[in-house]
């Protein structure tokens, strides 16, 4: 009896694929992953569509008056103009306060700092601040800006709100700017140091220009974050509705204020049969603003990156 | 100064020993003037919008001096189309001259243009407040003077030019020290001093985060201590029928149960979905699919939480929970812990997904290739090789997600329905209160609470609790990442 030598079958791509189609466990796993992805995308679409559908009635019938009317107890006249004003001012204050300090801190951490106690303390502080819930920043703002610095900020004013949100986004600005600076190839700065440049000259002429796209994107995104936050403003004392007579610029800055997300929260807290449309319409306004900011950041990053040829 | 050269190539021999400025053609000047007209009109519109919203709807709103000034500037530039020296055109000049390596002086052009701008628009603008006709006449007159001057250059341009040349001539070129020996590379005192100043300033910026942390700890914990140390406080107040701060009933278990439900439901939603998305994106997705799915998930991260709160009461409660619960005989109201928990979960999905995905993508390619080389299937590679290697990062993602869910305020404040106070309730289908929502409702009524004894301080007591909880969670996630990080 002769043993027939086993025929050597050379695996082909086809045979490998066939073995994969028999992979039941793999198929089930892949199916579960697909369900997760579809669920996640469905959540996004559900939020956007539901809000837009609820908001179309108001946005379709009286878009202009909704954008330009102040808040009111009359549902047919209430609008978000005061919220837009507050959010614009807050965005201005955040970019004036949080950007310079945050970018400065990032430069210090990445370029100057040695590996000492001070540096490590700063790093730990930044990481922990990034995880502190936003409402705790509201408490800080209430204690420091509203109560202790009442003389400067005028109490529950847009200055207090803007400064509180500046503190809130500061760790985000620091972290994103640090990442952008770290991504600059060290050969650039090494070359400059070799030519005898000081640290500041290297930072000013090489590091900052090449890190600019990343820094810009991070900063712009942090503005979007600040514009969406309502919890700290609630604690700092943003008003649901306020009236003013004729005021000077300073009195306006120190007076009552509100912001777009506060408008949404207030409308959502009112009886739904009359006010649900207002909350949805105000949500659409915020979403449009936030998406435009994000889009701007993405496009700006793409353009600058392309220009720098990286 | 004679008439303008019309040919862009007139001075192209920049390589010669004598440098000649290259002036842009009339056509490019025309384009520049057009750009400037559009620019002014856009500025006018932006000024109008900003003025409307910043000045406030209650103040007078109408065409202000700024609008008029910018519209006049646009009209004037359009009128002197392509012939004059406008702002944009000057910078085109400057740019071309600079690129050709010629002696362009940025400050020269800036000062000359500022003078021009001031005489043309600034002075009429100041007069405009009192007399529109006079300032309009002034603008027309200055425009005419420029129009009929030789080379369209008004007399004050020459004056400004002389002043500028005398004042700024030295600045245009930088004198480099001679470089003969290595000693010449030594840093001079002024450069070292500049570096030291910059370092000091940036160090202050760096210390800001430490200062903020200090302020949080000092302010919140002193106020929280005042709550505990107050006359009317006793520890028995923390165990009662519910959370009613204005009636001195501070039952912490009400808030803890609410917070636990919200966090638990949120993680039941966000955990599997976020992890699934992460595994799919890092192990299975082609670049094309990735480019669609990842931005979609990131969109979710940029939706403000108030919008999710409204979504919970306008969609999740009425259209999902009430219709599904109805068929099982469970009665849902509009406001319930489940509804808020699901919305918080939706907010947490992108956090879990993006941090886990980063962790899994950080697993080196070689591990996957070795696994495939041994004949493992994709599912085995994903679950037995990549997942364990990325486990520290994934658990950090879950902890960060939990910490975010605990700290989420607006969704719960809007959708959980326990504003002001809540009775102890362990049933998630009923309204409830969390730590953050309790703080928000206390904070929303700050003015009325401010005088009423320890109710106001309880706000800080809760803040201190929340701060400690989230701090512990963050420290834990950091420790996990550091402890179990695999060095590849």
The H-and-E topology of chain B, N to C, reads as HHHHHHHEEHHHHHHHHEHHH
Fraction in helix of chain B: 55-70%
What's the total helix number of chain A? 13
Q: Based on CA inertia axes, which overall geometry of chain B fits?
A: extended
Q: Between the first and last Cα atoms of chain A, what is the distance in angstroms?
A: 71 Å
User: Numbering strands along the chain, what is their spatial order in the largest sheet of chain B?
Assistant: 2-1-3
Q: Say what the CATH topology of chain A is.
A: MetI-like fold
Most extensive chain interface and residues per partner: A-B, 108 and 100 residues
The top-level CATH class of the largest domain in chain B is Mainly Alpha
CATH fold-level name of the largest domain in chain B? MetI-like fold
CATH architecture tag of chain A? Orthogonal Bundle
| Overall strand count of chain A | 0
CATH homologous group name of the largest domain in chain B: MetI-like
Helix-strand sequence of chain A? HHHHHHHHHHHHH
The structural domain count of chain A equals 1
- How confident is the prediction overall: mean pLDDT of chain B? 73
Average pLDDT number of chain A: 81
Q: Class of chain A, according to the CATH hierarchy?
A: Mainly Alpha
Quickly count the helices of chain B: 18
Number of domains of chain B: 3
- N- and C-termini, Cα separation of chain B: 71 Å
Care to give the gist of this entry?
Chain A has 310 residues and is mainly alpha-helical.
Topology (elements, then pairings):
The complex is a heterodimer of chains A (310) and B (488).
Chain A: H1 13-21, H2 24-68, H3 81-112, H4 117-131, H5 134-148, H6 150-153, H7 158-182, H8 186-194, H9 199-228, H10 231-236, H11 249-254, H12 260-269, H13 272-308
Helix pairs in contact in A: 2-13, 3-7, 3-9, 3-12, 4-7, 5-7, 7-9, 8-9, 9-13, 12-13
Chain B: H1 26-55, H2 65-79, H3 87-99, H4 106-128, H5 132-148, H6 155-168, H7 189-229, E1 242-244, E2 249-250, H8 252-284, H9 287-302, H10 305-327, H11 337-361, H12 365-373, H13 378-389, H14 391-407, H15 410-415, E3 422-423, H16 435-444, H17 446-450, H18 454-484
Antiparallel strand pairs in B: 1-2, 1-3
Helix pairs in contact in B: 1-2, 1-3, 4-5, 4-6, 7-18, 8-11, 8-14, 9-11, 10-11, 11-14, 12-13, 14-18, 16-18
């Amino acid at each position: 009896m002769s043993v027939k030598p086993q025929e050597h079958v050379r695996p082909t791509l086809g045979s490998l694929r066939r073995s994969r189609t028999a992979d039941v466990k793999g198929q089930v796993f892949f199916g579960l992953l697909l369900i997760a992805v579809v669920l996640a995308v469905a959540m996004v679409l559900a939020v956007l569509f539901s809000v837009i559908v609820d908001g179309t009635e108001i946005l379709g019938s009286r878009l202009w008056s909704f954008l330009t009317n102040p808040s009111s107890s009359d549902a047919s006249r209430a609008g978000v103009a005061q919220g837009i004003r507050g959010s614009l001012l807050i965005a201005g204050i955040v970019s004036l306060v949080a950007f310079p300090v945050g970018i400065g801190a990032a430069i210090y951490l990445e370029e100057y700092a040695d590996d000492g106690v001070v540096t490590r303390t700063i790093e730990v502080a930044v990481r922990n601040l990034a995880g502190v819930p936003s409402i705790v920043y509201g408490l800080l703002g209430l204690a420091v800006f509203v109560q202790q610095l009442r003389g400067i900020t005028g109490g529950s004013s847009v200055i207090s709100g803007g400064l509180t949100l500046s503190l809130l986004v500061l760790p985000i600005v620091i972290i994103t700017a640090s990442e952008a600076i770290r991504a600059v190839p060290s050969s650039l700065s090494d070359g400059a140091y070799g030519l005898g440049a000081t640290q500041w000259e290297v930072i000013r002429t090489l590091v900052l220009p090449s890190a600019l796209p990343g820094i810009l994107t991070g900063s712009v995104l942090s503005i979007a974050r600040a514009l969406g936050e309502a919890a700290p403003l609630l604690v700092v004392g943003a008003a649901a509705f306020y009236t003013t007579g004729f005021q000077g610029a300073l009195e306006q800055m120190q007076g009552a204020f509100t912001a777009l997300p506060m408008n949404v929260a207030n409308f959502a807290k009112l009886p739904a049969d009359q006010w649900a449309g207002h909350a949805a319409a105000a949500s659409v306004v915020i979403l449009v603003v936030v998406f435009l900011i994000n889009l701007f950041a993405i496009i700006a990053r793409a353009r600058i990156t392309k220009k720098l040829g990286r | 100064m004679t008439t303008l050269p019309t040919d862009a190539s007139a001075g192209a021999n920049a390589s010669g020993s004598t440098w000649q400025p290259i002036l842009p053609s009339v056509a490019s000047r025309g384009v520049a003037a057009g750009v400037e007209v559009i620019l002014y009109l856009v500025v006018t519109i932006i000024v109008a919008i900003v003025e409307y919203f910043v000045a406030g709807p209650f103040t007078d709103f109408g065409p202000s001096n700024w609008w008029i000034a910018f519209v006049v500037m646009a009209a004037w530039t359009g009128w002197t189309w392509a012939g004059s020296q406008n702002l944009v055109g000057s910078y085109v000049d400057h740019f071309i001259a600079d690129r050709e390596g010629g002696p362009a002086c940025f400050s020269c052009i800036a000062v000359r243009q500022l003078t021009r701008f001031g005489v043309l628009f600034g002075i009429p603008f100041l007069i405009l407040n009192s007399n529109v006709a006079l300032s309009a006449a002034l603008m027309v007159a200055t425009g005419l003077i420029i129009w009929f001057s030789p080379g369209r250059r008004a007399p004050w341009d020459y004056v400004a030019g002389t002043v500028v040349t005398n004042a700024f001539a030295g600045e245009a070129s930088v004198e480099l020290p001679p470089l003969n020996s290595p000693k010449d590379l030594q840093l001079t005192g002024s450069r070292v001093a500049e570096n030291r100043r910059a370092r000091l300033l940036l160090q202050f910026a760096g210390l800001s985060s430490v200062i903020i942390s200090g302020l949080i700890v000092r302010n919140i914990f002193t106020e929280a201590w005042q709550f505990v140390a107050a006359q009317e406080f006793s520890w028995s107040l923390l165990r009662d029928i519910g959370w009613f701060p204005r009636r001195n009933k501070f039952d912490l278990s009400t808030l803890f149960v609410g917070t636990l439900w919200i966090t638990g439901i949120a993680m039941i939603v966000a955990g599997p979905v976020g992890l699934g998305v992460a595994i799919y994106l890092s192990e299975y997705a082609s670049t094309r699919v990735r480019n669609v799915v990842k931005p979609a998930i990131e969109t979710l991260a940029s939706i403000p939480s108030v919008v999710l709160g409204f979504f919970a009461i306008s969609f999740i409660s009425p259209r999902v929970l009430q219709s599904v619960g109805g068929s099982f005989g469970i009665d849902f109201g509009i406001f319930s812990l489940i509804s808020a928990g699901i919305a918080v979960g939706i907010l947490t999905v992108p956090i879990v997904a993006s941090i886990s995905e980063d962790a899994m993508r950080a697993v080196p390619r070689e591990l996957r290739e070795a696994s495939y080389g041994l004949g493992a299937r994709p599912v085995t590679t994903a679950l037995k090789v990549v997942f364990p290697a990325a486990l520290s990062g994934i658990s950090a993602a879950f902890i960060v997600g939990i910490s975010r869910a605990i700290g989420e305020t607006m969704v719960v404040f809007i959708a959980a329905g326990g504003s002001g106070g809540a009775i102890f309730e362990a049933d998630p289908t009923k309204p409830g209160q969390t730590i953050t929502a309790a703080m928000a409702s206390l904070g929303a009524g700050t003015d009325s609470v401010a005088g009423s004894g320890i109710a106001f301080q309880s706000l800080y007591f809760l803040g201190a609790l929340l701060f400690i909880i989230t701090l512990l969670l963050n420290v834990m996630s950091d420790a996990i990442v550091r402890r179990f990080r695999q060095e590849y």
